Amino acid sequence: MSDLADLQHEQIQTLELDVSSDDSVAKAVDFVMSRCGKIDILINNAGIGSTGPLAELPLDVIKRAYEINALGQLRMVQGVVPHMVARGGGSIVNIGSVVGKVPTPWAGSYCASKGLKDYDWRIYKNFKDTIAERARASQSGKSTDATVFARHVASRVLSSSPPKTITSGQ
């Protein structure tokens, strides 16, 4: 969140919260509503990786990734939509990844991995380094820095004619 601190001004409120918690989401929505009286834009940017061979990736890791990456976005949408509907408008931006359309190997549980955890793989243990290298490919070299992307998205969404789809990078 410190990377986004300079985005905070009268038009943007960045909040750190737990998108896997109904209570945390409700408190964040209530905070914005009490402070601003409305919610104009939600930028859903939460996400965690869960990379590895599905045969050996612990189910708890897969469940946590889906809880954050999929259900967390939905939880936020459900939290803000009633307020947007009540005032007759609003925008929701769900940040995704190119790997949602072009999956990478070893990221079957969710193709938004940012690295490997140290699990006790048995079947694929001889390939662990290669799997980790491939899973990190979209997060190194020419990948877009998350802060740069967040600024790009915020500026486009706040423009006088925000686009329906925002892309960045090559």
Automatic annotation (TrEMBL):
Q: From what superkingdom does this record's organism come? A: Eukaryota
Q: Which GO terms describe its molecular function?
A: oxidoreductase activity
Transmembrane regions:
none
Instruction: Please give an example of a GO cellular component term from this record.
Output: endoplasmic reticulum
Q: What keyword terms does UniProt attach to this protein?
A: Oxidoreductase
Tell me which SUPFAM superfamilies the record gives: NAD(P)-binding Rossmann-fold domains
Q: Does the keyword Nucleotidyltransferase apply?
A: no
Presence of keyword Oxidoreductase: yes
Q: Which family does it belong to?
A: Belongs to the short-chain dehydrogenases/reductases (SDR) family.
PANTHER family assigned to the protein according to its UniProt record, in alphabetical order: ENOYL-(ACYL CARRIER) REDUCTASE (PTHR44169:SF5), NADPH-DEPENDENT 1-ACYLDIHYDROXYACETONE PHOSPHATE REDUCTASE (PTHR44169)
- What is this protein's name? 3-oxoacyl-[acyl-carrier-protein] reductase FabG
